[in-house]
Design goal:
Layout (H helix, E strand, L loop, with lengths): L5 H29 L8 E5 L6 H17 L3 E5 L6 H9 L6 E6 L1 H4 L1 H4 L6 H4 E10 L2 E4 L8 H10 L5 E4 L5 H13 L5 E4 L3 H9 L5 E4 L4 H5 L4 E5 L26 E8 L4 H15 L2 H9 L2 E6 L1 H21 L6
Parallel strand pairs: 1-2, 1-3, 6-7, 6-8
Antiparallel strand pairs: 3-10, 4-10, 4-11, 5-8, 5-9
Helix pairs in contact: 2-11
């Protein structure tokens, strides 16, 4: 037979309430300990091109500035090959924990799917974070070129079909696609494409007169300023801040020949939204720094920041233009 003891009953109730109250304090502390603030360790940024190139230098500039703000090292991991596809695939396979990102030209998403036979589809397999700057394209001709502007160049090309050539950084690269847009806009289909392994060797053969012109991403600046090559026009929607007196191709009567090389950051799908928002914010801060702006300028680049929504819009628009160009011009990387 159970005997009811009032004092014991009261003591039991006090003990239960105390334990319940303690659990409401401890549980949030445990939960907080299980989800520490990000970042807690070094961040890896995979770059789809070799060290020393424009993409690599831009990635290092932005990463260094962000590293200071985030309080963790950002390690650059170069995975060159297939115009950025190898690096993109590496990031697709990475854990979506906020510690792996991709930096590449937008062409990895807007052009590569139309150029390569691959199961990789960045628009489906990766999440855009932000645009981290751009370079414009410059129509640069060999020093012996008699043309003084784009109209002269087009007249020469039409007068001698099949005789004129242009160099590019490689089949399917943005400089190649920019020159194809130029051919399309100027109705000069007989200009021969000569692909090289990079923008530097392509420019070298224009300097030597082996190729007639190139759509250059900015590495020709020193040679333009010393008169070793001729800058005939800007293959962009607006004039260059570096050469404000040189008109665009459109201003010289040929609309449709404009393609900037945009650079951006992507993350694995399902990366936490708060991490993506923080990275976007820190990219904007990094690009606003005076020293970063100056170093971009040395590359012929601009620190134009695109927030996530703007970056997605750019990718959609550019993808539509380039996929159509590649299809219509039958451009191949083979």
């Amino acid at each position: 037979m159970n005997t009811f003891h009032p004092k014991r009953h009261i003591l039991r109730r006090v003990l239960v309430c105390t334990l319940l109250g303690f659990s409401t304090i401890v549980t949030p502390l445990i939960s907080h300990a299980q989800t520490p603030a990000w970042p807690q360790k070094p961040i890896r940024v995979v770059v789809g091109f070799a060290p020393g190139g424009t993409t690599d230098v831009i990635a290092r500039l932005v990463s260094q500035a962000m590293s200071e703000a985030l309080g963790q090292p950002i390690v650059i991991d170069n995975k060159p090959g297939a115009s950025g596809n190898i690096a993109a695939a590496e990031v697709v396979r990475a854990a979506p924990d906020g510690y792996t990102f991709l930096i590449a030209p937008t062409s990895v998403e807007t052009a590569n799917p139309s150029l390569f036979k691959s199961t990789l589809l960045p628009s489906r397999d990766l999440t855009p974070v932000a645009g981290i700057g751009r370079t414009q394209m410059y129509l640069v001709a060999k020093p012996q070129m008699p043309a003084k502007d784009v109209k002269d160049l087009v007249a020469l090309a039409k007068a001698q079909p099949g005789k004129m050539s242009y160099a590019s950084a490689g089949a399917g690269t943005p400089p190649h696609l920019a020159c194809e847009l130029f051919k399309q806009a100027t109705h000069t289909p007989d200009i021969t494409h000569i692909p090289y392994r990079g923008a530097a060797p392509a420019l070298q053969d224009v300097l030597s007169g082996q190729a007639d012109f190139v759509c250059d991403p900015g590495i020709a600046f020193p040679h333009i300023k010393t008169g070793k090559v001729k800058l005939l026009g800007i293959v962009s929607a607006k004039r260059s801040p570096f050469f404000p007196d040189v008109p665009t191709v459109a201003e010289q009567g040929f609309k449709g020949a404009d393609l900037d090389i945009w650079f951006g950051m992507w993350a694995p799908n399902n990366t936490p939204a708060d991490v993506l928002a923080r990275m976007n914010k820190e990219i904007g801060k990094a690009l606003a720094q005076t020293n970063v702006k100056a170093r971009y300028g040395d590359l012929g680049a601009e620190t134009t920041w695109l927030e996530t929504a703007e970056f997605k819009t750019l990718l959609t628009t550019e993808g539509r233009v380039l996929s159509s160009l590649i299809r219509e011009q039958k451009i191949s990387v083979d």
